[in-house]
User: Which sequence fits this backbone?
């Protein structure tokens, strides 16, 4: 997004003011929650260097949750939806290496047989396997009775503000 590192802070929910000074919070353009996606941190600059050495014409697209070093070296960076569109709109026979969870990469390879789709590095996420047809059906059949999450006021009110902002950025809407 072009935000300089000195305008970003990390928020630790266990510390007062997230571990930041009031001045740092005031000067921040972006406040990042302290956390990360294990899968996206597995991609390294060396993976990109190896691909570029072996396949200089290949394109490399990564998820923005990858490290800043990996993001800076990629040809394109974007959300899962962005990656799907990137592959769909690529030229036939184009070779694309993708830095995100392996199951999306496999799906894109199947849906785009006219392109050469590969993983940047093996990236299997065990948590993604918790999302399956059986668990989806169980949840849909039991909406409101299992896996309920109750958010109390005033947290609910304040939590809705960034959610609405994110949805507005993507063209979505909330209820």
Assistant:
């Amino acid at each position: 997004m072009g935000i300089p590192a000195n305008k970003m802070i990390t928020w630790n929910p266990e510390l007062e003011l997230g571990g930041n000074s009031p001045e740092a919070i005031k000067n921040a353009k972006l406040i990042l929650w302290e956390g990360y996606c294990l899968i996206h941190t597995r991609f390294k600059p060396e993976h990109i260097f190896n691909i570029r050495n072996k396949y200089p014409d290949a394109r490399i697209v990564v998820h923005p949750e990858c490290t800043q070093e990996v993001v800076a070296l990629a040809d394109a960076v974007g959300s899962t939806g962005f990656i799907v569109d990137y592959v769909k709109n690529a030229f036939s026979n184009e070779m694309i290496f993708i830095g995100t969870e392996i199951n999306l990469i496999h799906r894109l390879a199947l849906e785009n047989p006219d392109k050469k789709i590969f993983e940047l590095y093996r990236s299997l996420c065990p948590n993604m396997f918790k999302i399956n047809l059986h668990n989806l059906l169980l949840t849909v059949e039991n909406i409101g009775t299992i896996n309920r999450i109750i958010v109390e006021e005033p947290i609910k009110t304040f939590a809705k503000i960034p959610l609405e902002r994110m949805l507005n950025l993507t063209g979505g809407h909330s209820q």
About this structure: The chain has three domains: 1-35, 38-126, 132-170. Residues 1-35 form one domain.
